[in-house]
Write a structure and sequence with these properties.
Helices cover 41% and strands 18% of the residues. With 329 residues, it is an alpha/beta fold. Helix 2 runs antiparallel to helix 10.
């Protein structure tokens, strides 16, 4: 009887273990809400698109995405939170590619830009940044502005956001044309635009949300920095059209911590891509100044690697750095 009882107990334990592990193995991701750490401020163009996108993605996965906003350390704080997160797919980050590339080139980062993250996908890009002046400025064209800057070294004050794509665009022009203007740093495009309108600086290389100020007569745009002309201001030429082999296009996308499983990556990429197909996301796109820019998991990862190489070269060329402040891997 004792042997029979022992045998039954062993069988019970074996069956219980089998049921337990079968349940674990059969658990479907996601089982709970997914936290999205955002590098953007609430209400920014990229944030509006990201929120509309994750709403659609949540409906597809039947689990909500919850936005959580974090700022600090030049934008590297939110990226560092995700880099340190458990690689289970429940904490991801919405950020511009520059947030983990350009920032880490200039200052020591608490992560490895090309090792600490799993790229998931990109959904839009800041493409149509611009160089703007006050409406009563003496320059009607970018050529007139450049010619004046050449003839008056050290006199022109250029408002920039240090290390941004807009800043690099103007450094490229200055380097190619041998211009010496004074870079005046600002925290973002809005502050630099205000400085132009107040005549505190002569020009500003500013973010994508400049068109309303042009339409209201508060600013004049001399050139844009994208691959093509801005749909909102088709009469303003691009740097490329004017003979500068440069464009400032910064993709925005989602990354997770390193080590996400292929299954989780595939589900997140699919869900977020589905989010771009919703009427809500398309309606949000019409309200902001971003450009649709889709890259899948592999292509977004390739872009980040290529961006590191390109930006490191430019940063050294323009004297921003001698060596990267952070090792990429």
């Amino acid at each position: 009887m004792r042997k029979k009882g022992l045998l039954m107990a062993i069988c019970f334990l074996i069956i219980a273990n089998m049921l337990f592990f079968t349940g674990v193995a059969g658990a479907e991701y996601p089982e709970k809400e997914i936290t999205v750490i955002s590098m953007s401020d609430p209400g920014q163009s990229s944030d509006i698109l990201a929120r509309a996108l994750v709403e659609g993605a949540g409906k597809y996965l039947q689990k909500p995405f919850v936005m959580e906003y974090k700022q600090g350390a030049g934008g590297m704080l939110p990226a560092s939170v995700v880099a340190a997160a458990k690689p289970d797919g429940y904490t991801i980050c919405a950020l511009p590619a520059s947030g983990i590339i350009e920032g880490a080139l200039r200052q020591k980062a608490p992560f490895k830009p090309l090792k600490s993250f799993t790229p998931i996908m990109s959904f839009c890009a800041a493409e149509h940044t611009a160089t703007v002046v006050a409406p009563d400025a003496p320059w009607k064209t970018f050529k007139e502005f450049v010619d004046y800057a050449k003839k008056n070294p050290g006199k022109v004050k250029m408002g920039i956001s240090p290390g941004s794509g807009m800043h690099i665009a103007m450094e490229f022009v200055a380097h190619q044309d041998g211009i010496n203007w004074v870079n005046v740093p600002f925290q973002g495009g809005a502050a630099s635009r205000t400085a132009v309108m107040g005549h505190h600086v002569d020009a500003a290389s500013t973010s994508v949300d400049w068109p309303p100020f042009l339409e209201s007569g508060q600013l004049r745009a001399l050139v844009t920095h994208g691959m093509t002309r801005s749909p909102r201001s088709p009469n303003v030429p691009t740097l490329i059209e004017l003979g500068y082999n440069f464009s400032a296009v910064v993709p925005y996308g989602f990354v997770g911590p390193a080590g996400l499983s292929p299954d989780v990556i595939a589900k997140l990429e699919t869900a977020l891509t589905k989010g771009m197909e919703t009427p809500e996301w398309k309606a949000a796109l019409q309200k902001v100044y971003m450009t649709p820019f889709f890259l899948n998991n592999k292509d977004f990862g390739r872009h980040l690697r290529e961006r590191w190489i390109e930006q490191e070269k430019l940063f050294k060329q323009f004297g921003f750095i001698k060596e990267p402040a952070t090792q990429p891997e």
